[in-house]
Amino acid sequence: MKQGLPATAWAVLGLLSFPGERTGYELKKWADSSLRFFYWSPAISQIYAELRRLEELGYASSARSGPEEPRAKRRYAITGAGREALSGWAADTAEAGPPVLKHGLLLRIWLGHLAEPARLRAMVGEHLERTRGELAAVREAVEQAADVPEWTFPRLALRWSERQHLAELELGEALLADLEELSPQDGAVGRQAGGDAPTPG
Predict the structure, then answer these.
(1) Is the pLDDT of residue 54 over 80?
(2) Once rounded to an integer, what is the mean pLDDT over residues 33-61?
(3) How crowded is residue 22: how many other Cβ atoms within 10 Å of its Cβ?
(4) Among 78, 80, 83, 70, which residue's Cα sits nearest to residue 20?
(5) What are the distances in angstroms from CA 51 to CA 8, 19, 98, 135, 194?
(6) What is the predicted pLDDT for the residue at 197?
């Protein structure tokens, strides 16, 4: 029977579904260079918590390294039951749900009547700079995955993320242009706490 696990557990199990055994630290590094570009990267504490859960369910197994390594490490691998459960979850389109957008910058733009226009423009500029950095990191990840046959589908997800970052840059530039077009009077009433809320009807 398929377990009702949180998405984080399935993501960690998904990291284990590729060939090889990995430590929790290695799983975190891979999540930082792949998952975070289109989903999010769990904290190392979350990864270890989910690995314990997956072991209890029989979906993952682990073994400690031998005395040949200077520091003992515990490496994890997916089990047959884990691969079967993960395949069922991945094929269940009802599980995917709609994408969730939580755009911290846009929340601040929405509250722009409480801020100075120059500060808002600076925030958008900072966001564009961060996005360019993230785009460079995505492209580096795509390049690293290019010659690994087992990473064909992760590469497709990363290519989607590359296009998403390009779209984010375009949207950010358009937002900056919108802010530039505002007159000094725009939003002034809101900063003085006057006027009705912009509700329909």
Answers:
(1) yes
(2) 95
(3) 17
(4) 78
(5) 10, 17, 27, 30, 53
(6) 58
Q: What is the dihedral of CA 120, 126, 127, 128, to 10 degrees?
A: 110
For 133-195, give the secondary structure using H, E and C.
HHHHHHHHHHHHHCCCHHHHHHHHHHHHHHHHHHHHHHHHHHHHHHHHHCCCCCCHHHHCCCC
Per the prediction, the chain carries an average pLDDT of 89
Cβ pair 53, 42 in contact under 8 A: no
Question: CB–CB of 84/106 below 8 Å?
Answer: no
In one letter, which amino acid is 132? R
- Of 68, 54, 62, which is closest to residue 23 (Cα–Cα)? 62
Chain segment 100-147, per-residue pLDDT in tens: 889 999 999 999 999 999 999 999 999 999 999 999 999 999 999 998
Q: Are 169 and 135 in contact (CB under 8 A)?
A: yes
CA dist 163 and 187 (Å) reads 33
Nearest to 14 by CA among 42, 1, 148: 42
